[in-house]
């Protein structure tokens, strides 16, 4: 096990009350690895479900997961899909990876969270849970007494992140986002964690890496899933592959290639692709937001190069009157652009990135 960063965050008394305490991740392969009610022996693959109990007016949620446990001790790599429920490529990629990773030859453990945000997945919503209107990737580390999104975040923090030594939060463009693949490398953590996270980004292999220096450093207010791992001393990555609710082979292969690259990099598997050669580091990025509610018309494609002041799109009211023009704030590349008409004030319409 590679020990990185600061000591684990103390577990609160409420967790003892829930009876979920077990050995933390990265322990010897001889010790039982227990998640929820599932116990994984070395050299086996087991699946189970974390149940989020109903509370008040909400129906709770289920979080399906799989533990692929190698025979020998090593890193515990958590792969989380479906933090946003309409981001299907990572969800389908994990369905395939579940049977592609062999516990007989694996060093360490892979934890697959198949669908983190089940209310959003089954409810077919983008950004927000239909149960509480919250964005799961803005409520970490969660709250065991909160709304369903906050309870899901709390369960993932306690049951998955606590046991992991490394984590990848696998996203894609949401159901309304036309996206060009890229990773986020978070640079606000412990320098050793930041450096190890950089290695994971190179190993995952996407050729655009957004350098993200804006994430909070307080583990009690980590906000984002991958940042919850980083603020707990665990190297992590957020990846973006695919979008628009489409499951396409090219995007699936990017995830499979990426995971295989990280497994090799962490010496969990002997084979696999090497580090990406000469990625573009996106040192400057901006999410362009609508100042109005209405219909969005995009004038650019994902991956398109644009110059400062080029028209990215415009927003009209519901009778067709143009309310605002959206222009590029600097020369750069369109990482994603909204591909469907609905837009509410304050929501993203596009993300632009540049080297500096
Ligand atoms: Zn997402």
Bound molecules: zinc ion
Number of strands: 20
Strand order of the largest sheet: 3-4-6-5-7-11-9-10-12
Which class of secondary structure composition applies to the elements? alpha+beta
Q: For the CA atoms, what is the radius of gyration?
A: 20 Å
For the terminal residues, how far apart are their CA atoms?
A: 36 Å
| Mass-distribution shape | globular
Helical percent range? 10-25%
Subunit arrangement of the protein: single chain
Q: How is this structure best described in words?
A:
The protein is an alpha+beta fold and 356 residues long. The chain has helices at residues 13-18, 88-100, 118-123, 148-161, 191-204, 225-230, 249-265, and strands at residues 33-35, 38-40, 45-52, 61-69, 72-81, 107-113, 166-171, 177-179, 182-186, 208-212, 236-240, 280-282, 284-289, 294-298, 305-306, 311-316, 322-327, 332-338, 342-343, 348-354. Helix content is 21%, strand content 30%. The protein has a nine-stranded mixed sheet. Strands 8, 13, 15, 18 and 20 form a five-stranded antiparallel sheet that branches. Helix 2 (88-100) packs across helix 7 (249-265) and helix 5 (191-204) packs across helix 7 (249-265). The longest helix is centred in the C-terminal third of the chain and has 17 residues, at 249-265. The protein starts with 12 loop residues before the first helix and ends with a strand. Bound molecules: zinc ion. Zinc ion (ZN) binds at residues 83-84, 87, 171, 174.
């Amino acid at each position: 096990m590679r020990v990185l960063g600061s000591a684990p965050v103390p577990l609160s008394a409420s967790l003892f009350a829930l009876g979920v305490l077990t050995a933390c991740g990265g322990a010897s392969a001889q010790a039982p690895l227990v998640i929820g009610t599932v116990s994984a022996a070395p050299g086996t693959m087991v699946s189970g479900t974390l149940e989020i109990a109903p509370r008040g007016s909400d129906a709770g949620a289920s979080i399906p997961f799989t533990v692929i446990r190698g025979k020998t001790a090593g890193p515990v790599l958590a792969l989380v899909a479906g933090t946003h429920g309409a981001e299907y490529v990572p969800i389908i990629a994990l369905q395939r990876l579940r049977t592609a990773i062999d516990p007989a030859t694996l060093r360490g453990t892979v934890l697959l969270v198949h669908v983190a945000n089940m209310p959003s997945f089954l409810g077919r919503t983008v950004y927000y849970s239909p149960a509480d209107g919250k964005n799961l990737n803005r409520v970490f580390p969660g709250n065991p007494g909160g709304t369903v999104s906050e309870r899901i975040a709390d369960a993932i923090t306690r049951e998955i992140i606590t046991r992991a030594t490394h984590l990848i939060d696998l996203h894609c463009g949401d159901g309304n986002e036309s996206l060009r693949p890229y990773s986020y490398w978070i640079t606000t953590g412990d320098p050793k964690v930041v450096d190890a996270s950089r290695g994971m980004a190179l190993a995952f292999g996407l050729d655009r890496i957004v350098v993200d220096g804006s994430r909070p450093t307080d583990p009690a207010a980590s906000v984002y899933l991958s940042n919850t791992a980083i603020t707990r001393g665990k190297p992590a990555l957020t990846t973006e592959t695919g979008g628009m609710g489409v499951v396409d082979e090219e995007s699936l292969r990017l995830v499979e290639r990426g995971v295989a690259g990280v497994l090799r990099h962490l010496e969990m598997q002997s084979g696999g692709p090497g580090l990406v050669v000469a990625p573009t580091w996106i040192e400057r990025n901006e999410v362009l937001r609508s100042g109005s509610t209405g219909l969005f018309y995009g004038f650019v494609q994902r991956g398109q190069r644009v110059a400062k002041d080029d028209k990215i799109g415009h927003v009209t009211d519901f009778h067709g009157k143009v309310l605002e023009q959206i222009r590029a704030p600097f020369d750069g590349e369109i990482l994603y652009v909204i591909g469907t008409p609905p837009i509410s004030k304050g929501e993203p319409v596009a993300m632009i990135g540049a080297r500096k």
